[in-house]
Amino acid sequence: MIFNYRELLVILGVTINIIGTLPYLFGVIGGHVKPNKVSWLLWGMGPMIAGSAALVSGVGWSALPVFFSGIIPVSIFFVSLFVKRAYWKLESFDYWCGFFSLVALVSWGITKDPVLAIIFALIGDIFASVPTIKKAWVYPETESSLTYIAGAFSALTSLATITAWNFSSYAFPIYLFLVGCIIFIGLERKNFVVKKK
User: Fold this and answer.
1) The pTM is what?
2) Are 140 and 120 contacting, i.e. CB atoms less than 8 angstroms apart?
3) Residue 191: what pLDDT?
């Protein structure tokens, strides 16, 4: 089987995303990484639904990064349920973000307009991301930065495979890239600061 460069980029992006998630998963199992369950569950729901629908409708290779960007967070969520040391206390802020994310996901599911569906999916994912963005900037020791930069790279490979540049094709990958970078910078910002002598 001969792959074209777009398919190879998709495979590369998915592979790096999986490899980048392994330290996070092992960190959860070890108890020193404490995922925000609201973010990780909701990060998984939308992409798995969208990826499955795209695969069933015959979209092909470009659906693979979307599907894996959902299955990885759901896996993290379920592992975190069984590891008591990976417990992270949720606050009312987290639940409100989760609620608004679910509302956006339901709105996404019932709309017939593809652009509106993507807007609702983005809104849902933004609300799902806010608790972890806050956590990354306030409690960076409870996270693992490699996962987020690997996800950002995977989003870039999705952008590189786009043949028709329109809102539907680039909105989610650009958003995923930005969120991955924001969380990564929050986690690594102390390493970026030059210490004064």
Assistant:
1) 0.78
2) no
3) 75
